[in-house]
Write a structure and sequence with these properties.
about 450 residues; five-stranded mixed beta sheet
């Protein structure tokens, strides 16, 4: 196994550390607790349990050696009977002679092996005769056998004579304390993270243009301060938006009055040479006012609804056909999404109208993304836009006359309004080269 260079360890660990505040907070609490539990458990087993087990094994081995030596001094049935009775009463040992028997050949050892090693060391230091033992044959006893000329002297001892059997109680209490500590930590961290998540949700909803009621900041002092600052910032931004919308609405109303008078005077005036051109100028001025107001308003107050995406595409396609372009609409019949219908319809009409004004063929398509989102593409066969000017095309009032045909209608707000609507839904619009040869505008919305 190859080890990573020291310079790569920070990057390696960073990729494996949780990215959420919830995960990192748990890691900060859980990791030290687990390390502490492992250290305490290791110290306990090394300094206490193994030591106690070794001493118990040595005591049991001494009793076994005494019994073997006593029987070896006088290997008679009477001596064996007295020895077995005395060992049973004073040392809780069961002693029996298996005449003409031999020691078992197989070795029976435990999984961990700590008790077996302690018994092996203790018996080898006290017995000269061949022996065999098993700590796993009987759950509550230790089976020890010593070879004698008359047979095998079998000694059964309670397991607590060789092992500190109450060690698991300490480990159990340690685990219970750890679970309680982690439970308290999880509840505390979750309460703090929930306040941050609510603040993030409110900021995300406000960024999408949704109306979010005021909420009472709670949590840690720093989180409450951030929530209070966000609410104050949201109120200031909303006041700015309302003032801008009111200003544009007022300007629009004031400009429509003289425009209406001019349109009426042109309608009542006798025909003259420049009459049609003047009517065209009035139409363009009225369209410009509508675009200014739409850009300022942004349909931010509209509520989201579940709508049929195919219907929106077909409506945008019908609008684009009025300019004389050939329009194809490709959309599944059952494709729906939660959208602000008026705003999103305006965005699609802007994209389709922009494509129709620069090309003879327009294609509108939609599909559901595997992640649960939505993708809509508007393509044309026009001259397109150079890649280095894609972002410039989204700037308000940018018309890109050198890259595209002269935009005779509008003020360069079509793509800006469309991107503003897409971002208000949590998505975005990107530009690319179309298979038709012109521009491809792709709208991607999250699920």
């Amino acid at each position: 196994m190859r080890l990573l260079p020291a310079s790569l360890w920070p990057r390696f660990l960073k990729r494996r550390v949780p990215t959420s505040l919830w995960g990192r907070s748990l890691l900060i609490i859980v990791l030290p607790v687990l390390v502490m539990q492992a250290a305490v458990t290791w110290v306990f087993f090394d300094a206490h349990w193994q030591t106690v087990t070794a001493r118990l094994s040595e005591g049991l081995a001494g009793d076994v050696a005494w019994a073997v030596e006593t029987y070896a001094d006088d290997p008679s049935p009477k001596t064996l009977a007295v020895l077995a009775d005395r060992a049973e009463r004073t040392m809780s040992l069961s002693i029996a002679l298996q005449e003409e028997a031999q020691l078992p050949r197989e070795q029976q050892r435990g999984t961990i092996g700590v008790v077996d090693r302690a018994m092996e060391k203790a018996l080898s230091g006290r017995l000269d005769a061949p022996y065999w033992f098993s700590t796993t044959r009987y759950p509550a006893y230790v089976d020890i056998r010593v070879q004698q000329p008359q047979g095998v002297l079998r000694i059964i001892a309670p397991r607590e004579r060789a092992v500190a059997t109450q060690a698991h109680i300490f480990v159990l209490w340690l685990m219970v304390a750890t679970v309680l500590l982690l439970g308290v930590a999880v509840l505390f961290i979750r309460n703090q993270v929930r306040a941050i998540e609510r603040l993030a949700d409110a900021a995300e909803a406000f960024g999408r243009g949704e109306t979010v009621p005021r909420f009472k900041p709670h949590g840690a002092r720093e989180v409450r301060a951030a929530a209070t600052a966000f609410l104050a910032m949201r109120d200031r931004i909303q006041r700015h938006i309302d003032q801008r919308t009111a200003l544009l609405a007022s300007v629009s109303h004031d400009l429509r009055t003289p425009l209406t008078r001019l349109r009426l005077e042109l309608a009542l005036a006798p025909p003259f040479k420049r009459q049609a051109a003047m009517k065209g100028d009035l139409d363009e001025m009225e369209h410009m006012i509508d675009e200014y107001l739409a850009f300022a308003r942004g349909e931010a107050g509209e509520a989201a609804q579940t709508v049929d995406v195919g219907d929106l595409l077909r409506a945008a396609g019908d609008d684009a056909r009025r300019t004389g372009a050939e329009v194809d609409v490709l959309a599944p019949d059952d494709l729906t999404a939660a959208l602000r219908p008026i705003a999103f319809k305006r965005a699609l009409m802007n994209l389709a109208g922009n494509a129709a004004s620069h090309g003879e063929r327009v294609r509108l398509s939609a599909r559901a993304l595997p992640s649960g989102g939505l993708e809509i593409a508007v393509e044309d066969d026009g001259p397109g836009i150079p890649e280095d000017m894609h972002e410039e095309a989204f700037r308000p009032f940018s018309r890109l006359d050198e890259a595209r045909n002269q935009n005779r209608k509008g003020v360069g707000l079509g793509l800006a309004i469309a991107r503003d609507v897409a971002r208000g839904h949590g998505g975005d619009i990107t530009l690319d080269r179309s298979d038709l040869g012109g521009l491809k505008a792709v709208v991607r919305l999250p699920g």
